Amino acid sequence: MVGEKGKVYLIDVTNRDGVQTARLGLSKLSKTMINLYLNEMGIYQSEFGFPTTRHEANYLRANLKLQELGVLQPIRLGGWIRATAEDVTRAFYLVPEIKDFNLSISTSQQMIEGKFQGKKSKEDVLVMATEAIDAAKEHGARSVGINAEDASRSDLDFLVEFGLAAKEHGADRLRYCDTLGYDSMQTIYDTCKELAQKVGIPIELHCHNDLGMAAANSVAGAMGVMDGGQDAYINTTINGIGERAGNADLVAVVLALQKAKGVAGEYEFGVPIKLNMAWKICRYASYAFDVPIPINQPGVGANAFAHSSGIHADGVLKDPQNYELYEYEELGRGEPEIVETGREICSGEYSGISGFGHVMGQHEVKFATREEAERVLELARYANVLAQKPLVTDELLFIAKYPDITQQLLTLAPLADIQPVG
Question: How far apart are the C-alpha atoms of 232 and 356, rounded to whole Å?
């Protein structure tokens, strides 16, 4: 691909990095809904969870079943694990249908000394990473990304060595992790361009927001990768939810790639992105995480298209382009929000069949038999117990349409013996 400019793809990590955020979490149904919305939006891959974690196994397998049924297509569903052969084996033991992975290991001297406490060397890191890649490929993995944790504080020559070793063993991508948000736009552009040129495989950008530059650094790094002749994969989270100060915000990254000076028209998406999904997916994630969208959030904040000062109000009334870089309709905004202030029947963990039938009837869902309605109601009750908040319309419709998948999503077996598959 040398001499050609690469393209950019998005890998959203809300269901992996986002749920690692302190004090936050998502139910398995909420994680599934996010995967469905990401697929509809045109996201290349969702890092959908942890295949070595037992309480994730049913959820992961249920989503892979949705993929098999054609519901979650064409999005890929990738699991995140440590770069050890043992974790690869465990992942395939718990989730044998999984096909896509990101394997992670630390590469900086700080982490090697401070995290591994002198028990690992750079040579050990290379051996562990390549053995994990070999194990994944031997188990039938379709794609394997190798993650260099704390890459922005790693020696560049070692990153090149790490990437070349991974490439030799069949890695499909090298993930450059700005784990502490340490990079600047210039440093990440230069480093990732050189990695693309010297390693010769696609590069992922995984940026954190500790200095408030995650989205900008992600775009700058991707530009370097593409200018270096390789495809770039940007990691995002919805509303920027992530550990500490968060990750690169999905909508901000898309807006920058589609609208920014010197970027729009110069760097192309490998998969078309439906920006009009932004409002829906951001509102849902806000509700599911119970974290309000900041009023000044790009594109989806309450003030993103609000004008107060006389000069601005006058200017935008004459021509919106005077003070708006893009139109609110592009993000799927504009419909009125209706709040019930009269009689309302809700669906919850203590709902009865009559009220539930009324609620579902409002969404034009009819059940063939009372038994069918009672089964879906029971699943909705359990989903409500796990979410501890009213289910949104799309969740109720999902439960009614895929009751068997829902039952698998809601099934947990703590401390039970792991039974071999097949």
Answer: 47
